[in-house]
Design goal:
The chain has 384 residues and is an alpha/beta fold. 40% of the residues lie in helices and 25% in strands.
């Protein structure tokens, strides 16, 4: 509704509320637009419905207040801080209650390095959510790699440092060097292709991705999503040796191991030959001692077995003799002869041993066997 003035004679006078409302209504007709500035005085509280900040022109110091609904601001996940350079899309408005001119922000985008950092942070969260940085997917490095793949820049100092350290630790190591772009727009694609080529080489058991220090922009290829995914899919373990200790490109998070320098990477992928020989000598001595103990125990065991074998025939004969004596005793006890010795006799006819008197008749001839000798007889009488 159009504000109406108060009339004082021929003078039209507007109240403060009417004036602010009129200006606000006019500002609402202006189009939305993009504004660039530096963030200052960023204020956000969980209990506030809006986020407040001030945009400053770094050239002139001119400032513009801005506000944005807190839910919309939080959804952007910008992690803004004072000093960040941004592009803000919105429309001008007047906060009528206080007569404050401000920008009603609809969206905010970081500019320059701030934008790159914000994009990297979003990519980092995305890849982490996919599990590419999970500790459980990292593989152990081979103890004695048959062949080491080294990806490095053309004539890079990192290559020399790595090869020197490997030669000092394990001169017999076999290193396959692949030089490629490690900086600039061509680097991500070149690094991915070189990684795939090295992984396809015979006997390559581990690959070292090496580059010396540089600016944040110089190391950006090592945070490229294509390279990170290629490392995650690589068939052999990958060691990242990029930048300095304070630099953490995304390849450091996805690689199976991370080294702060190319020299440190050499310590990860090859053993120290001197230490290895000392350990082998210690193991050899321990093996010799243990073998001697085993042989001595076996000799003593054989001697004891020999003694037992020497005594075994005599013991076996004694046991057999005792067993035969026992059988002979049982046989003697069961023998008919033993029964005859006790005064009994065996009576036979021409058809066999007489077991019942009823099988005989008077006058029948019988043969009587005694313990000593025998005689013939005829039956005179039969008792039932």
């Amino acid at each position: 509704m159009k504000p109406e003035p108060l009339l004082y004679g021929d003078r039209k006078v507007y109240t403060v509320s009417a004036f602010n409302h009129g200006v606000s209504s006019w500002l609402e007709r202006l189009p939305t637009l993009w504004i660039e500035g530096e963030v200052t005085e960023l204020r956000r509280q969980s209990r506030w419905a809006s986020v407040f900040l001030t945009l400053k022109d770094p050239e002139t110091g001119t400032t513009l207040p801005a506000t944005m609904p807190r839910a919309a601001f939080d959804a952007l996940r910008l992690d803004l801080a004072d000093g960040d350079r941004v592009h803000v899309f919105g429309r001008p408005e007047l906060f009528e209650a206080r007569g404050v001119f401000q920008l009603r922000a609809l969206t905010i985008e970081p500019v320059g390095l701030g934008a790159v950092l914000a994009n990297l942070e979003r990519l980092k969260r995305k890849l982490a959510a996919e599990g590419l940085f999970a500790p459980e997917r990292k593989r152990a490095l081979p103890v004695l790699p048959r062949r080491i793949g080294l990806i490095t820049g053309h004539d890079a100092a990192a290559k020399k440092d790595f090869l020197t350290a490997v030669a000092a630790r394990f001169p017999a190591a076999n290193v396959l060097v692949a030089e490629t772009y490690v900086q600039g727009a061509q680097a991500p694609r070149a690094l991915v292709a070189t990684l795939a080529a090295l992984a396809a080489e015979d006997e390559v058991d581990v690959i070292v991705l090496s580059r010396g220090g540089g600016s944040f922009e110089d190391l950006l290829p090592f945070s490229d999503e294509r390279l990170v995914r290629a490392i995650a899919a690589c068939r052999v373990p990958v060691v990242s040796a990029v930048g300095h200790e304070q630099d953490v490109p995304l390849v450091d998070l996805v690689s199976d191991a991370r080294a702060s320098t190319p020299t440190a990477a050499a310590r990860l992928v090859v053993p120290d030959e001197r230490e290895l020989r000392e350990r082998l000598e210690t193991l050899r001595s321990a093996l010799a001692r243990e073998t001697g103990l085993i042989v001595e125990r076996a000799r003593q065991s054989l001697e004891r077995d020999g003694e037992r074998l020497g005594r075994s025939p005599v013991l076996l004969l004694e046991r057999k003799r005792a067993a035969l004596d026992g059988l002979a005793g049982r046989l003697r006890a069961l023998s008919p002869r033993a029964t005859l010795d006790r005064g009994y006799a065996i009576v036979r006819t021409d058809v066999g041993v007489v077991r019942a008197a009823a099988s005989l008749e008077p006058g029948r001839r019988v043969d009587v066997e005694l313990a000593a000798g025998g005689f013939g007889a005829r039956v005179e009488d039969v008792s039932p």
